[in-house]
Amino acid sequence: MSARKLHLNAFLMGVGHHEAAWRHPRTDPRALDDVTHFQHLARIAERGTFDSVFLADGVQIWGDVRHTAAGRFEPLTLLTALAQVTDHIGLIATASTGFSEPYNLARLFSSLDHISGGRAGWNIVTTAQDRSAQNFNREVNTEHAERYRRADEFLDVVTALWDSWEDDALVVDQATGVFADETKVHEIGHKGQFFSVRGPLNAVRSPQGHPLLVQAGSSEDGRSFAAAWAEAVFTAQQTHAEATAFYGDIKRRVEAFGRPADGLKVLPGIVPVLGGTEAEALALAAELDDLIIPARAVRQLTELIGIDLTGHPLDERLPELPPVSHVNGAKSRFELVRDLAERERLTLRQLLGRLGGGRGHQVVAGTPEQVADHIELWFTTGAADGFNVMAPLLPSGLEDFVDHVVPLLRARELFRTEYTGRTLREHYGLPRPASRYSRVHADSLQA
User: Fold this and answer.
1) Do 233 and 267 form a contact (C-beta atoms < 8 A)?
2) E strand spans, 154-264
3) Is pTM, for the whole model, over 0.85?
4) H or E stretch including 54?
5) Is the Cα torsion angle 58, 122, 389, 350 positive or negative in sign?
6) DSSP type of residue 58
7) What's the pLDDT at 328?
8) What's the CA gap between 340 and 292, in Å, rounded?
9) What is the signed CA dihedral for 80, 81, 82, 83, rounded to 10 degrees?
10) Sequence-distant (≥ 6) Cβ neighbours of residue 13 within 8 angstroms
11) Terminus of the chain with fewer CB atoms < 10 Å: N or C?
């Protein structure tokens, strides 16, 4: 029996991850603004004993409103609603260090952790797009490396705020009128390059101490940041060789920071297009690709890589792209798209089809056995600790995965049959961090 188990996260995006999902007859685009749709998805994932569900987010409108299925809840608000209809599954939300303040964000995730009984996770993004900056009093975004310097200090502040109440700070003695031991509630007194924060947080320490920290960047700066802070990485690789190289590199970086390699879980994205036969799965993939609107897809790709491709002939290969050093947007996704187009000599039309299923994440079309084989291969050969499951259609694609792929993974003893913990950290096999102030106090007593 394998001691190491897969970690599965259900990435919930509207009515499906394929960009044309809303046009397919197996979806209902009116569900985009219906909280019960997302509650139903969370229950499906919990039935499949997934570690967590995840909601992406941004601070701009994506694509064009004519062809893009718009309608997106703010994720922390939505996850609070999902917490009320689930008991075990983790709840991960994206929030940007570029367009937030540490104090507010620390409060929000602490609140979700309390409300959910210790199931909150934060997907940390720095936000790359100029269009996002233009919603926050700026014309252009800050430089890539500076965004990560800000993020690093942001995490210093947020984790200090989460620690600012020691676990035993509450006294709650009604007879004496003492609610809290003020010696165990700490001002953090942070003054840095980007932030000045007095503290303490106006919330007691949450069940997990620190909500789970997740990160999704794969650039050089992103990898260094992940190695220092992240406990899970959502990543995108197209080939097994790329995935094993990334996996080995990020684990070595984690150890260089004095952390155990298993303290960070690597979860590549997978878009499972399932059918009773391989031919049925390929037919569904083709149906979805046929619903792509090329003009919309070109605009989406332009936003994704930060290079204007509008007007480029669809049946010609991409123009020569600049070096990644000239890109100030999402560097890792730019490199993925460039390498895919060059390696397979794709025309723009072909590239749009390849990206339509999952924006650069690997699309695996086949039977449940074939998808399970793919997951097992990557898991057992040093390419992944689990997967970020991105169903092309929702809810049907997630239901198919839970009903047909998960039982195969359980039969192969690769995945849990039931939850053994209540918190997201317990699902990941990670310890609850002690407050830094408790550690300082203990060290002073020993001295």
Assistant:
1) yes
2) 170-173, 178-180, 190-191, 196-197, 212-215, 232-235
3) yes
4) strand 52-55
5) positive
6) -
7) 62
8) 19
9) 50
10) 56, 390, 394
11) N
